[in-house]
TrEMBL record:
<feature type="transmembrane region" description="Helical">
    <location>
        <begin position="80"/>
        <end position="101"/>
    </location>
</feature>
<feature type="transmembrane region" description="Helical">
    <location>
        <begin position="198"/>
        <end position="219"/>
    </location>
</feature>
<feature type="transmembrane region" description="Helical">
    <location>
        <begin position="139"/>
        <end position="160"/>
    </location>
</feature>
<keyword id="KW-1133">Transmembrane helix</keyword>
<feature type="transmembrane region" description="Helical">
    <location>
        <begin position="166"/>
        <end position="186"/>
    </location>
</feature>
<keyword id="KW-1003">Cell membrane</keyword>
<dbReference type="GO" id="GO:0005886">
    <property type="term" value="C:plasma membrane"/>
</dbReference>
<keyword id="KW-0812">Transmembrane</keyword>
<feature type="transmembrane region" description="Helical">
    <location>
        <begin position="231"/>
        <end position="254"/>
    </location>
</feature>
<keyword id="KW-0472">Membrane</keyword>
<dbReference type="InterPro" id="IPR050833">
    <property type="entry name" value="Poly_Biosynth_Transport"/>
</dbReference>
<feature type="transmembrane region" description="Helical">
    <location>
        <begin position="289"/>
        <end position="311"/>
    </location>
</feature>
<protein>
    <submittedName>
        <fullName>Membrane protein involved in the export of O-antigen and teichoic acid</fullName>
    </submittedName>
</protein>
<feature type="transmembrane region" description="Helical">
    <location>
        <begin position="435"/>
        <end position="453"/>
    </location>
</feature>
<dbReference type="Pfam" id="PF13440">
    <property type="entry name" value="Polysacc_synt_3"/>
</dbReference>
<feature type="transmembrane region" description="Helical">
    <location>
        <begin position="408"/>
        <end position="429"/>
    </location>
</feature>
<feature type="transmembrane region" description="Helical">
    <location>
        <begin position="375"/>
        <end position="396"/>
    </location>
</feature>
Length: 473
């Protein structure tokens, strides 16, 4: 089992690190304002992902019919149908998006991006079906191979284009290669079926995820839209890079947590063994907390040096904001545990309400910016909203999934101390009276977090043992 964990983490990390490297290279090679325009492509990508977020990839893992060939073909048919529809909508919305962001001359680029939801929807679902037996290799390669080629392509594209178009064509290339790779690695023949009964059941399973995808779009991209429209493309370039540096490890850890625990939680839920499900769910919650802490401390230690070395002086204004962005993203990682447990029980609406709280923070941030606020105010509002959302996610896990959360309380308290110490970063380095207290919290806090995670330690002791198995992963 430990081998599968390492494969999953290293695979997701490799793909995400290559994409991070691509973004850093692009940011280094083009002006900050052009990188701000390129950041709007990330917003559009999120819109594409939101439009195809029906949870079909999770459904093929969660459902008892997941191994059925016709069920898979029906999911693939439904996915492609929605991808084509999303592409048409994207093409129609290209001009309004460009006008809203006050860059109407870029509308053609958003029209080009309309091909991307079609490419994404044409991926073969075998890469997800194989996750049911904890075989993650095809899924990982489908992410890593396109990321590598997209990274390599940046250099000739930069020499040729020298502006935001570098990112545009790198993104389109990545989506096309991902679709191709998924078919090359599939074990089954690709088939498309339109089955009304399966589509109806998928709608029942997926409509909360689609609505949640819309909320996630507002959560993750609303701040960018706000900053780009009201503070300008240069500010968006800084903010977008800060999000990139902190969101990349967030996505690695959250995706790995879900991919690893979802098949096991689904099996426990389908078997009716609530005690096993309850214990494993808390282990997943604690894994999310641990992941968020690791990411936060990594940014705390390495974030500013990375900005100085890799991006230069033009991104210096980002340095004092980075730890606040990291704290916000850490809390987002925390929510991966409750979200995964909810999906395993087909309670896909659980993720809606925490994200709704986060969305309600957007008008508050917008009002503050319109009254002379800046980037820091936007980030603080988001941080508070994420914290309230996590509290609600835990409450829903207790109320709707009947998970006993009392063993989780010490871990939440310990991780809160770590976040508080990290946010005191300026005091730590300016010789303020709280200096030694802050350092003590950053050293002792992680130890307290690990000690408090009884369920995760028990799970690791029982399941994460080295194996000599040579089965495919």
């Amino acid at each position: 089992m430990i081998g599968k964990v390492l494969v999953l983490l290293s695979g997701n990390a490799a793909a995400s690190v290559m994409l991070l490297a691509r973004n850093l290279i692009v940011a280094r090679l083009i002006p900050v304002e052009d990188y701000g325009i390129a950041a709007t492509f990330a917003v559009t990508m999120a819109l594409i992902e939101m439009s195809t977020q029906f949870g079909l990839q999770q459904q093929i893992v969660q459902s008892k019919e997941g191994e059925d060939d016709r069920f898979q073909a029906a999911l693939q048919g439904f996915q492609l149908m929605r991808g084509v529809l999303a592409g048409i909508i994207m093409f129609v919305l290209a001009n309004p998006i460009a006008a809203f962001l006050k860059i109407p001359e870029i509308a053609w680029a958003y029209q080009v991006m309309a091909i991307m939801p079609v490419l994404r929807a044409s991926q073969h679902f075998d890469i997800h079906r194989l996750n049911r037996s904890l075989r993650y290799g095809p899924m990982i390669l489908t992410s890593a191979v396109p990321a590598l080629i997209s990274l390599i392509a940046v250099f000739p594209l930069a020499i040729w284009l020298k502006d935001y178009r570098v990112m545009l064509f790198a993104l389109v290339l990545q989506e096309g290669l991902a679709a191709l790779t998924s078919h090359v690695l599939a074990e089954r023949k690709y088939r498309l079926v339109l089955d009304r009964d399966i589509i109806t059941r998928s709608l029942g399973f997926g409509w909360p995820l689609l609505l949640n995808g819309a909320l996630l779009f507002l959560v993750m991209q609303g701040d960018k839209l706000l900053v780009g429209r009201e503070l300008g493309m240069a500010s968006l370039g800084l903010f977008g890079m800060g999000i990139t540096l902190t969101l990349t490890p967030t996505l690695i850890l959250a995706k790995s947590t879900q991919n690893f625990f979802l098949p096991q939680l689904s099996a426990a839920s389908n078997s009716g063994d609530h005690q096993a499900f309850d214990t494993m769910a808390r282990a997943a919650f604690q894994a999310g907390l641990l992941n968020g802490m690791v990411m936060l401390l990594g940014v705390f230690a390495l974030g500013v040096p990375l900005i100085e070395i890799l991006l230069g002086d033009k991104y210096a204004p980002l340095q004092p904001l980075l730890i606040w962005l990291a704290a916000q993203q850490a809390i987002r990682v925390f929510k991966s545990g409750p979200s995964t447990a909810a999906v395993a029980c087909a309670q896909t609406s659980n993720a809606l309400y925490p994200n709704l709280l986060r969305v309600l923070g957007l008008p508050v941030a917008w009002w503050i910016v319109l009254h002379d606020g800046g980037l820091w105010h936007v980030i603080v509002v988001a941080l508070v909203a994420e914290g309230l959302g996590y509290a609600l996610a835990l409450a829903l896990a207790h109320w709707r999934l009947n998970i006993d959360l009392r063993p989780l309380v010490p871990s939440v308290i310990a991780i809160s101390l770590v976040i508080a110490a990290a946010l005191a970063q300026p005091a730590l380095f300016n010789g303020a009276p709280r200096m030694w207290t802050g350092f003590a919290l950053l050293i002792l806090g992680p130890l307290l977090v690990i000690v408090s995670m009884k369920d995760l330690r028990t799970y690791a002791r029982n399941h994460l043992r080295p194996t000599t198995s040579r089965k495919k992963v």
